[in-house]
Sequence to fold (344 residues):
Amino acid sequence: MRVSDYDFDLPEQSIASQPLQQRDASRLLCLSEVNDDFSDRRIVDLPHMVQPGDVWVVNDTKVIPARLVGSKQSGGRVEILLLEPTDKTDVWRAWGKANKPLKEGTMITFSDTFTATVLAREGKDVLVQLQADDVAAAIETHGHMPLPPYIARPDSEEDKQRYQTVFARHAGAVAAPTAGLHLTTELMAAMQAAGAEFVHVTLHVGPGTFQPVQVEDVADHIMHEEAYIVPAETAEAVNRARQQGRRVVAVGTTSLRTLEAAGQSGQLLAGAGRTSIFITPGYHFRMVDALLTNFHLPKSTLLMLVSALAGRQRVLAAYEHAKQAGYRFYSYGDAMFVPGRTES
Fold:
C-alpha cells in the first residue's frame, strides 16, 4: 500500500485557523451506511442521528500548555514542546527547537523563576529538568497552547478554552482530541435524551498525530506511542453493547485507537496501557461501529484509519465534496460521521 494513495490537494483557505463562535455550529458531512452517498448536515443534528442504545465514547484527556519559549545563556531563542513526564515529575521528555541542536547541559530560561536544563538527547527527543518552586504551576503560567503547525498564528487566550473539550479532565495531551471540540453539554444532553450513552477513555494525544508519513510504503511507517486508560465502567458498557448488538461510536480517532488497542481480544479490557496501533485498510474492527471525526491531513495515518473504516475511495470522494462545498478542514474545522463499511 502506497502513501501516495492517500494524497490530495487542499487550498490554504480551506484550513480553519480559528474556531467558530459556537462549538456546535460546525457542519457535518455524513457518509451512508449502505452506499457511496453522503449528505450535508450540522453537528446540531447529532441527536437525530442517535440510535437508541448507542454507546458514544469520548476522550477526556486535557491539553496542557506544553509549548515553552525561552532563551539560552547566549541569548539564542529556544522553543520546547513538552511531551510527557518521566517517573520524576520535574523531568520531561520533549522536543527542542533552536538555531543549533540542544546539547546536554544547556540551560534555558523561561522567566526569572522558571528555568530548565537539558539532561540528555534520545534521538529526536531531549530530556529536560524543569526548575521552579511549583513546576506544574509554572507550566500553566508560562506555557502556550500547542496549536498544530498548520495553524500559522500565535495562540490566544481564546485557545485556552476552545482548544479543549468541555469534558477534558485528565491533563497530559499536547494536542486536542479534535472531534470532541464540537460537543457541548447541551448537545450531549440532547443526544442522551435520544438514547445515547456517553462513556470516557483517556488517551494523551502526542504530537506524532500531526507528523506526515515520510515513507512511500505504508508498511515501513513506525507509529508514535501514546498512553491510555480504559475505566472499568467504560469496558463494561462497551462489552455489553457489543454483546447486545448495539452501536459503539468513537468520538475521534484517539477514542477509536484506544478502544481497538484495548480490545484486540474481542473484549474491551479495562486498565492502563500504551499503544502504537496503526490502523490501515484491511484492518478488522473489533470494538467500533462508527466514528465522528474531523478532516485529516493528506498522507496521514489518520486518513488511513478513516479509510480502513469506510473505504479509501469513498473517503477521498467525500473529501473532494467537502473541498468543493467549502467545509473547513483540520483541528478547528468541520466534521464527518463515518459508519463502518468495508471497501469492496
Remarks:
- The first helix runs from residue 46 to 49.
- The mean pLDDT is 94.
- The radius of gyration is 20 Å.
- The longest strand covers residues 77-85.
